[in-house]
Amino acid sequence: MAKRTGSSGKAAGSATGSVGWSGGEGVGGMLNGLPLSEYAERRQRVLEALGGSVGLVMAGDESEHLPVGRWRPDAFFIYLTGITRESGAAVVFDPTAEDPTRRIMLLLRPVNPEADQWTGFREMIGTDLRKRYRFSSIMRIGALAEVLCQAARRSKKLACLHPFTNYNQPVSADLATFRRVTERIPGCGIEDRTDVLRGMRSCKSAREVGLIRHAVQITAGGYEAACKVIRPGVTEAVVQHAMESAYRELGAAGPTGSVHAYNPIVGSGVRGTVLHYNDNDGPLEDGDLLVIDSGAQHFGYAADITRTYPVSGKFTAEQRELYELVLEAQRASIAAVKPGATMTDVNNATKRVFEKAGMLDHYPHGIGHQLGLEVHDTQTHAPLAAGNVITIEPGLYIPARKIGIRIEDDILVTSKGADNLSSEIPKSVKDVEEMMAG
Fold this sequence. Notes:
The protein is an alpha+beta fold. It folds into 2 domains: 27-201, Creatinase/prolidase N-terminal domain (Creatine Amidinohydrolase, Chain A, domain 1), CATH 3.40.350.10; 203-437, Creatinase/methionine aminopeptidase superfamily (Creatine Amidinohydrolase). The protein is built from 12 helices and 18 strands. It has helices at residues 36-49, 75-81, 113-119, 127-133, 144-155, 173-182, 195-202, 206-229, 236-249, 317-335, 343-356, 429-437; strands at 30-31, 34-35, 54-58, 90-93, 104-108, 137-140, 157-160, 189-192, 265-268, 289-294, 297-298, 301-302, 305-310, 389-392, 395-398, 403-406, 409-413, 418-420. Helix 8 crosses helix 9 and helix 10 (317-335) runs antiparallel to helix 11. It is elongated. Residues 3-25 have low confidence and may be disordered.
Protein backbone atom coordinates (compact mmCIF):
# COMPACT_ATOMS: atom_id res chain seq x y z
CA MET A 1 0.00 0.00 0.00
CA ALA A 2 1.47 3.37 -0.97
CA LYS A 3 2.48 5.09 2.24
CA ARG A 4 3.51 8.52 3.33
CA THR A 5 6.76 7.92 4.81
CA GLY A 6 -1.81 -22.94 7.73
CA SER A 7 -5.41 -23.26 8.00
CA SER A 8 -8.16 -20.90 7.09
CA GLY A 9 -9.41 -18.53 9.76
CA LYS A 10 -13.09 -18.24 8.87
CA ALA A 11 -15.11 -16.24 11.36
CA ALA A 12 -17.30 -18.20 13.71
CA GLY A 13 -19.90 -17.24 16.26
CA SER A 14 -19.49 -17.79 19.97
CA ALA A 15 -21.47 -18.18 23.12
CA THR A 16 -19.14 -15.93 25.10
CA GLY A 17 -17.94 -12.42 24.50
CA SER A 18 -14.42 -13.46 25.48
CA VAL A 19 -14.14 -15.91 22.59
CA GLY A 20 -12.74 -14.29 19.47
CA TRP A 21 -13.48 -14.03 15.79
CA SER A 22 -11.62 -17.19 14.78
CA GLY A 23 -13.76 -19.40 16.97
CA GLY A 24 -12.43 -21.64 19.72
CA GLU A 25 -9.84 -19.36 21.28
CA GLY A 26 -7.56 -21.44 23.44
CA VAL A 27 -8.86 -24.73 22.06
CA GLY A 28 -6.12 -27.32 21.62
CA GLY A 29 -3.50 -24.97 23.02
CA MET A 30 -3.98 -22.47 20.16
CA LEU A 31 -5.26 -18.91 20.19
CA ASN A 32 -6.01 -17.17 16.89
CA GLY A 33 -3.51 -19.09 14.85
CA LEU A 34 -0.65 -19.20 17.36
CA PRO A 35 0.07 -21.52 20.30
CA LEU A 36 -0.71 -20.24 23.78
CA SER A 37 2.92 -20.88 24.66
CA GLU A 38 4.06 -18.21 22.18
CA TYR A 39 1.91 -15.54 23.82
CA ALA A 40 3.14 -16.63 27.27
CA GLU A 41 6.76 -16.47 26.11
CA ARG A 42 6.20 -12.94 24.79
CA ARG A 43 4.79 -11.80 28.11
CA GLN A 44 7.70 -13.33 29.98
CA ARG A 45 10.18 -11.54 27.72
CA VAL A 46 8.47 -8.22 28.46
CA LEU A 47 8.57 -8.90 32.21
CA GLU A 48 12.29 -9.63 32.06
CA ALA A 49 13.01 -6.61 29.86
CA LEU A 50 11.28 -4.30 32.34
CA GLY A 51 13.66 -5.22 35.15
CA GLY A 52 11.91 -3.86 38.23
CA SER A 53 9.60 -1.43 36.45
CA VAL A 54 5.82 -1.74 36.26
CA GLY A 55 4.26 -2.05 32.79
CA LEU A 56 0.71 -1.74 31.48
CA VAL A 57 -0.75 -2.72 28.09
CA MET A 58 -4.38 -1.79 27.47
CA ALA A 59 -6.84 -3.19 24.93
CA GLY A 60 -8.81 0.02 24.54
CA ASP A 61 -12.54 0.65 24.82
CA GLU A 62 -15.28 -0.24 22.39
CA SER A 63 -17.67 2.48 21.23
CA GLU A 64 -21.24 2.24 22.48
CA HIS A 65 -22.45 3.17 19.00
CA LEU A 66 -22.89 0.48 16.37
CA PRO A 67 -19.61 0.53 14.41
CA VAL A 68 -18.89 -0.50 10.83
CA GLY A 69 -17.21 -3.85 11.34
CA ARG A 70 -16.14 -5.32 14.63
CA TRP A 71 -14.13 -3.49 17.25
CA ARG A 72 -10.43 -4.30 17.22
CA PRO A 73 -8.25 -4.04 20.33
CA ASP A 74 -4.86 -2.38 20.41
CA ALA A 75 -2.37 -4.44 18.40
CA PHE A 76 0.07 -4.65 21.32
CA PHE A 77 -2.67 -6.22 23.44
CA ILE A 78 -3.40 -8.76 20.70
CA TYR A 79 0.33 -9.47 20.38
CA LEU A 80 0.62 -10.31 24.09
CA THR A 81 -2.65 -12.19 24.57
CA GLY A 82 -4.25 -13.22 21.27
CA ILE A 83 -7.54 -11.99 22.76
CA THR A 84 -9.64 -9.95 20.35
CA ARG A 85 -13.08 -9.58 21.96
CA GLU A 86 -12.38 -8.11 25.41
CA SER A 87 -12.75 -4.35 25.30
CA GLY A 88 -11.55 -2.51 28.39
CA ALA A 89 -9.07 -5.26 29.27
CA ALA A 90 -5.45 -4.78 30.35
CA VAL A 91 -2.26 -6.70 31.09
CA VAL A 92 -0.24 -5.56 34.11
CA PHE A 93 3.44 -6.41 34.54
CA ASP A 94 4.49 -6.23 38.21
CA PRO A 95 8.04 -7.64 38.47
CA THR A 96 8.35 -6.92 42.19
CA ALA A 97 5.20 -8.76 43.27
CA GLU A 98 5.95 -11.21 46.07
CA ASP A 99 3.60 -13.81 44.58
CA PRO A 100 5.16 -15.02 41.27
CA THR A 101 1.71 -15.85 39.88
CA ARG A 102 0.75 -12.16 40.09
CA ARG A 103 3.73 -10.71 38.25
CA ILE A 104 1.78 -10.89 34.98
CA MET A 105 -1.96 -10.31 35.37
CA LEU A 106 -4.88 -10.12 32.96
CA LEU A 107 -7.67 -7.76 33.99
CA LEU A 108 -11.10 -8.08 32.34
CA ARG A 109 -14.38 -6.20 32.53
CA PRO A 110 -16.83 -7.64 35.06
CA VAL A 111 -19.63 -9.94 33.99
CA ASN A 112 -22.85 -7.95 33.59
CA PRO A 113 -25.78 -10.16 32.51
CA GLU A 114 -27.91 -7.23 31.36
CA ALA A 115 -25.13 -5.57 29.32
CA ASP A 116 -23.82 -8.92 28.06
CA GLN A 117 -27.18 -9.68 26.48
CA TRP A 118 -26.43 -6.85 24.06
CA THR A 119 -22.80 -7.70 23.29
CA GLY A 120 -22.32 -11.40 24.09
CA PHE A 121 -22.39 -13.58 27.18
CA ARG A 122 -19.11 -13.75 29.09
CA GLU A 123 -17.49 -16.19 31.48
CA MET A 124 -16.83 -16.06 35.17
CA ILE A 125 -13.17 -16.11 36.18
CA GLY A 126 -12.09 -19.65 36.95
CA THR A 127 -9.75 -22.44 35.99
CA ASP A 128 -11.20 -22.83 32.50
CA LEU A 129 -10.68 -19.16 31.65
CA ARG A 130 -7.14 -19.14 33.05
CA LYS A 131 -6.28 -22.22 31.00
CA ARG A 132 -7.86 -20.80 27.86
CA TYR A 133 -5.69 -17.70 27.99
CA ARG A 134 -2.74 -19.20 29.91
CA PHE A 135 -2.72 -16.57 32.64
CA SER A 136 -2.06 -17.66 36.21
CA SER A 137 -3.84 -14.57 37.51
CA ILE A 138 -7.00 -13.00 36.07
CA MET A 139 -8.83 -10.21 37.88
CA ARG A 140 -11.55 -7.69 37.09
CA ILE A 141 -10.57 -4.29 35.70
CA GLY A 142 -12.05 -2.58 38.73
CA ALA A 143 -8.96 -3.70 40.65
CA LEU A 144 -6.57 -1.88 38.30
CA ALA A 145 -6.16 1.23 40.43
CA GLU A 146 -5.25 -0.75 43.55
CA VAL A 147 -2.98 -3.12 41.64
CA LEU A 148 -1.06 -0.30 39.98
CA CYS A 149 -0.72 1.82 43.09
CA GLN A 150 0.54 -1.09 45.17
CA ALA A 151 3.04 -1.99 42.46
CA ALA A 152 4.16 1.63 42.09
CA ARG A 153 4.77 2.00 45.84
CA ARG A 154 7.08 -1.01 45.72
CA SER A 155 8.82 -0.30 42.42
CA LYS A 156 8.78 3.51 42.18
CA LYS A 157 9.23 2.97 38.41
CA LEU A 158 6.47 2.94 35.78
CA ALA A 159 7.43 1.93 32.24
CA CYS A 160 5.50 3.13 29.19
CA LEU A 161 5.14 0.35 26.62
CA HIS A 162 2.55 1.88 24.27
CA PRO A 163 4.11 4.15 21.61
CA PHE A 164 4.03 7.85 22.43
CA THR A 165 1.88 10.16 20.33
CA ASN A 166 2.47 13.60 18.85
CA TYR A 167 1.54 16.60 20.99
CA ASN A 168 -1.62 17.26 18.96
CA GLN A 169 -2.98 13.74 19.60
CA PRO A 170 -4.40 12.11 22.74
CA VAL A 171 -1.78 10.92 25.22
CA SER A 172 -1.07 7.17 25.06
CA ALA A 173 -3.28 5.15 27.40
CA ASP A 174 -0.57 3.90 29.74
CA LEU A 175 1.12 7.31 30.05
CA ALA A 176 -2.21 8.95 30.91
CA THR A 177 -2.82 6.31 33.60
CA PHE A 178 0.71 6.53 35.01
CA ARG A 179 0.46 10.31 35.33
CA ARG A 180 -2.50 9.85 37.65
CA VAL A 181 -0.57 7.29 39.67
CA THR A 182 2.47 9.55 40.12
CA GLU A 183 0.24 12.37 41.39
CA ARG A 184 -0.61 10.12 44.34
CA ILE A 185 2.77 8.46 44.99
CA PRO A 186 5.68 10.87 45.54
CA GLY A 187 9.04 9.77 44.16
CA CYS A 188 7.51 7.52 41.52
CA GLY A 189 8.96 8.07 38.04
CA ILE A 190 7.85 7.29 34.47
CA GLU A 191 10.25 5.66 32.01
CA ASP A 192 10.27 5.41 28.22
CA ARG A 193 10.32 1.69 27.41
CA THR A 194 8.41 1.96 24.16
CA ASP A 195 11.25 0.18 22.36
CA VAL A 196 10.52 -3.14 24.12
CA LEU A 197 7.33 -4.21 22.34
CA ARG A 198 8.20 -2.42 19.10
CA GLY A 199 11.42 -4.40 18.86
CA MET A 200 9.70 -7.67 19.68
CA ARG A 201 6.91 -7.18 17.16
CA SER A 202 9.25 -6.15 14.35
CA CYS A 203 11.05 -9.51 14.49
CA LYS A 204 8.53 -12.15 13.44
CA SER A 205 8.58 -15.72 14.70
CA ALA A 206 8.47 -18.61 12.24
CA ARG A 207 4.78 -19.08 13.02
CA GLU A 208 4.03 -15.41 12.40
CA VAL A 209 5.82 -15.59 9.05
CA GLY A 210 3.68 -18.62 8.25
CA LEU A 211 0.51 -16.62 8.88
CA ILE A 212 1.75 -13.78 6.66
CA ARG A 213 2.66 -16.29 3.94
CA HIS A 214 -0.88 -17.66 4.10
CA ALA A 215 -2.33 -14.15 3.86
CA VAL A 216 -0.16 -13.61 0.77
CA GLN A 217 -1.42 -16.89 -0.77
CA ILE A 218 -5.01 -15.78 -0.23
CA THR A 219 -4.14 -12.41 -1.78
CA ALA A 220 -2.69 -14.20 -4.81
CA GLY A 221 -6.08 -15.83 -5.32
CA GLY A 222 -7.69 -12.40 -5.16
CA TYR A 223 -5.43 -11.05 -7.88
CA GLU A 224 -6.15 -14.07 -10.05
CA ALA A 225 -9.87 -13.39 -9.64
CA ALA A 226 -9.37 -9.70 -10.45
CA CYS A 227 -7.66 -10.44 -13.75
CA LYS A 228 -10.67 -12.47 -14.87
CA VAL A 229 -12.95 -9.43 -14.71
CA ILE A 230 -10.65 -6.57 -15.77
CA ARG A 231 -11.76 -5.23 -19.15
CA PRO A 232 -13.01 -1.96 -20.62
CA GLY A 233 -16.51 -1.05 -19.52
CA VAL A 234 -16.54 -2.65 -16.07
CA THR A 235 -16.07 -0.57 -12.92
CA GLU A 236 -13.39 -0.56 -10.28
CA ALA A 237 -16.07 -1.77 -7.86
CA VAL A 238 -16.54 -4.96 -9.90
CA VAL A 239 -12.81 -5.69 -9.59
CA GLN A 240 -12.83 -5.03 -5.86
CA HIS A 241 -15.85 -7.29 -5.39
CA ALA A 242 -14.16 -10.12 -7.30
CA MET A 243 -11.13 -9.90 -5.01
CA GLU A 244 -13.25 -9.74 -1.85
CA SER A 245 -15.21 -12.81 -2.93
CA ALA A 246 -12.01 -14.73 -3.53
CA TYR A 247 -10.55 -13.65 -0.18
CA ARG A 248 -13.67 -14.78 1.62
CA GLU A 249 -13.83 -18.09 -0.23
CA LEU A 250 -10.15 -18.77 0.58
CA GLY A 251 -10.66 -18.17 4.30
CA ALA A 252 -9.44 -14.63 4.92
CA ALA A 253 -10.64 -13.16 8.21
CA GLY A 254 -9.52 -10.82 10.95
CA PRO A 255 -10.58 -9.38 14.30
CA THR A 256 -12.91 -6.81 12.72
CA GLY A 257 -14.63 -9.36 10.50
CA SER A 258 -13.15 -7.83 7.35
CA VAL A 259 -11.30 -9.98 4.83
CA HIS A 260 -9.12 -6.96 3.97
CA ALA A 261 -6.00 -6.00 5.91
CA TYR A 262 -6.70 -2.36 4.94
CA ASN A 263 -8.95 -0.33 2.67
CA PRO A 264 -8.08 -1.50 -0.85
CA ILE A 265 -7.08 0.82 -3.69
CA VAL A 266 -8.54 0.02 -7.12
CA GLY A 267 -7.77 3.02 -9.31
CA SER A 268 -7.71 3.24 -13.10
CA GLY A 269 -6.46 6.01 -15.38
CA VAL A 270 -5.78 9.28 -13.58
CA ARG A 271 -7.31 7.81 -10.41
CA GLY A 272 -4.39 5.39 -10.30
CA THR A 273 -2.08 8.34 -9.70
CA VAL A 274 -3.82 9.17 -6.39
CA LEU A 275 -1.76 7.43 -3.73
CA HIS A 276 -4.56 6.76 -1.24
CA TYR A 277 -7.50 6.64 -3.66
CA ASN A 278 -10.26 4.42 -2.29
CA ASP A 279 -13.54 5.50 -3.91
CA ASN A 280 -13.08 2.47 -6.17
CA ASP A 281 -16.15 3.25 -8.29
CA GLY A 282 -14.85 4.66 -11.57
CA PRO A 283 -15.07 3.02 -15.01
CA LEU A 284 -12.22 1.09 -16.60
CA GLU A 285 -11.41 2.50 -20.01
CA ASP A 286 -9.54 1.04 -22.95
CA GLY A 287 -5.87 2.06 -22.90
CA ASP A 288 -5.77 2.89 -19.18
CA LEU A 289 -3.68 1.29 -16.49
CA LEU A 290 -5.31 -0.10 -13.34
CA VAL A 291 -3.46 0.10 -10.03
CA ILE A 292 -4.66 -2.42 -7.42
CA ASP A 293 -3.26 -2.18 -3.90
CA SER A 294 -4.89 -4.88 -1.79
CA GLY A 295 -4.09 -7.46 0.85
CA ALA A 296 -5.99 -10.16 2.68
CA GLN A 297 -5.56 -10.90 6.35
CA HIS A 298 -5.18 -14.31 7.97
CA PHE A 299 -5.70 -14.56 11.74
CA GLY A 300 -5.16 -10.79 11.77
CA TYR A 301 -1.78 -10.88 9.98
CA ALA A 302 -1.66 -8.72 6.88
CA ALA A 303 -0.53 -9.08 3.31
CA ASP A 304 0.06 -5.89 1.29
CA ILE A 305 0.46 -6.31 -2.46
CA THR A 306 0.25 -3.90 -5.40
CA ARG A 307 0.08 -4.79 -9.05
CA THR A 308 -0.58 -2.63 -12.14
CA TYR A 309 -2.55 -4.02 -15.08
CA PRO A 310 -3.34 -2.76 -18.60
CA VAL A 311 -7.14 -2.59 -18.86
CA SER A 312 -7.01 -3.65 -22.53
CA GLY A 313 -4.76 -6.62 -21.73
CA LYS A 314 -1.61 -5.18 -23.36
CA PHE A 315 0.73 -2.39 -22.29
CA THR A 316 1.33 0.42 -24.74
CA ALA A 317 4.97 1.10 -25.61
CA GLU A 318 5.09 4.07 -23.21
CA GLN A 319 3.38 2.15 -20.43
CA ARG A 320 5.71 -0.80 -20.90
CA GLU A 321 8.82 1.37 -20.74
CA LEU A 322 7.73 3.04 -17.49
CA TYR A 323 6.48 -0.22 -16.01
CA GLU A 324 9.80 -1.93 -16.60
CA LEU A 325 11.57 1.06 -15.01
CA VAL A 326 9.48 0.61 -11.84
CA LEU A 327 10.22 -3.10 -11.91
CA GLU A 328 13.95 -2.38 -12.24
CA ALA A 329 13.76 -0.04 -9.26
CA GLN A 330 11.94 -2.62 -7.18
CA ARG A 331 14.51 -5.29 -7.97
CA ALA A 332 17.29 -2.90 -6.98
CA SER A 333 15.63 -2.19 -3.65
CA ILE A 334 14.94 -5.86 -2.93
CA ALA A 335 18.60 -6.58 -3.64
CA ALA A 336 19.53 -3.93 -1.04
CA VAL A 337 17.58 -5.72 1.71
CA LYS A 338 19.84 -7.42 4.24
CA PRO A 339 20.48 -7.37 7.98
CA GLY A 340 22.15 -4.12 8.97
CA ALA A 341 20.76 -2.13 6.05
CA THR A 342 18.34 0.70 6.78
CA MET A 343 15.09 1.52 5.00
CA THR A 344 16.90 4.63 3.77
CA ASP A 345 19.48 2.38 2.10
CA VAL A 346 16.67 0.37 0.50
CA ASN A 347 14.86 3.51 -0.65
CA ASN A 348 18.05 5.00 -2.10
CA ALA A 349 18.41 2.00 -4.42
CA THR A 350 15.07 2.91 -6.03
CA LYS A 351 15.88 6.62 -6.10
CA ARG A 352 19.12 5.97 -7.99
CA VAL A 353 17.24 4.08 -10.71
CA PHE A 354 14.61 6.81 -11.07
CA GLU A 355 17.15 9.64 -10.91
CA LYS A 356 19.22 8.08 -13.70
CA ALA A 357 16.07 7.89 -15.85
CA GLY A 358 15.08 11.48 -15.02
CA MET A 359 11.90 10.34 -13.27
CA LEU A 360 12.67 10.99 -9.60
CA ASP A 361 10.13 13.82 -9.37
CA HIS A 362 7.38 11.31 -10.13
CA TYR A 363 8.22 9.17 -7.07
CA PRO A 364 6.58 11.03 -4.14
CA HIS A 365 6.51 8.36 -1.41
CA GLY A 366 8.87 6.12 0.52
CA ILE A 367 9.86 2.58 -0.38
CA GLY A 368 7.87 0.68 2.23
CA HIS A 369 7.18 -0.19 5.85
CA GLN A 370 7.04 -3.02 8.37
CA LEU A 371 4.22 -5.55 7.97
CA GLY A 372 2.55 -7.83 10.51
CA LEU A 373 -0.46 -7.57 12.82
CA GLU A 374 -1.10 -4.20 11.19
CA VAL A 375 -0.50 -3.27 7.58
CA HIS A 376 1.54 -0.36 8.94
CA ASP A 377 3.10 -2.53 11.58
CA THR A 378 4.93 -0.99 14.48
CA GLN A 379 7.92 0.96 13.17
CA THR A 380 11.41 0.95 14.59
CA HIS A 381 14.36 3.18 13.73
CA ALA A 382 16.79 0.29 14.00
CA PRO A 383 18.54 -1.24 10.97
CA LEU A 384 16.86 -4.22 9.35
CA ALA A 385 17.26 -7.56 11.10
CA ALA A 386 16.47 -11.16 10.25
CA GLY A 387 12.79 -11.78 10.95
CA ASN A 388 11.57 -8.36 9.81
CA VAL A 389 8.83 -8.42 7.17
CA ILE A 390 8.70 -5.27 5.05
CA THR A 391 7.05 -4.02 1.88
CA ILE A 392 9.00 -2.83 -1.16
CA GLU A 393 6.76 -0.64 -3.31
CA PRO A 394 8.31 1.84 -5.77
CA GLY A 395 5.98 3.75 -8.05
CA LEU A 396 5.74 6.43 -10.71
CA TYR A 397 2.75 8.77 -11.07
CA ILE A 398 2.13 11.12 -14.00
CA PRO A 399 -1.42 12.52 -13.77
CA ALA A 400 -1.13 14.55 -16.99
CA ARG A 401 -0.56 11.31 -18.90
CA LYS A 402 -3.05 9.25 -16.83
CA ILE A 403 -0.24 6.93 -15.83
CA GLY A 404 0.08 5.48 -12.35
CA ILE A 405 2.33 2.47 -11.81
CA ARG A 406 3.19 0.78 -8.52
CA ILE A 407 4.59 -2.69 -7.87
CA GLU A 408 4.68 -3.96 -4.29
CA ASP A 409 5.87 -7.20 -2.72
CA ASP A 410 6.17 -8.47 0.85
CA ILE A 411 9.76 -9.25 1.80
CA LEU A 412 11.11 -11.33 4.68
CA VAL A 413 14.55 -10.24 5.85
CA THR A 414 16.73 -13.34 6.30
CA SER A 415 20.24 -13.84 7.60
CA LYS A 416 21.41 -13.95 3.97
CA GLY A 417 19.29 -11.17 2.50
CA ALA A 418 15.68 -11.22 1.33
CA ASP A 419 12.93 -13.75 0.70
CA ASN A 420 10.11 -12.44 -1.51
CA LEU A 421 6.96 -13.91 0.05
CA SER A 422 4.79 -12.75 -2.87
CA SER A 423 7.04 -13.70 -5.79
CA GLU A 424 4.42 -16.07 -7.20
CA ILE A 425 2.02 -13.21 -8.02
CA PRO A 426 2.94 -12.39 -11.65
CA LYS A 427 4.55 -9.01 -12.29
CA SER A 428 6.78 -9.15 -15.37
CA VAL A 429 5.29 -7.61 -18.51
CA LYS A 430 5.11 -11.00 -20.17
CA ASP A 431 3.52 -12.73 -17.17
CA VAL A 432 1.03 -9.92 -16.57
CA GLU A 433 -0.14 -9.92 -20.16
CA GLU A 434 -0.43 -13.71 -20.15
CA MET A 435 -2.41 -13.58 -16.91
CA MET A 436 -4.76 -11.01 -18.42
CA ALA A 437 -5.20 -13.15 -21.55
CA GLY A 438 -5.76 -16.31 -19.53
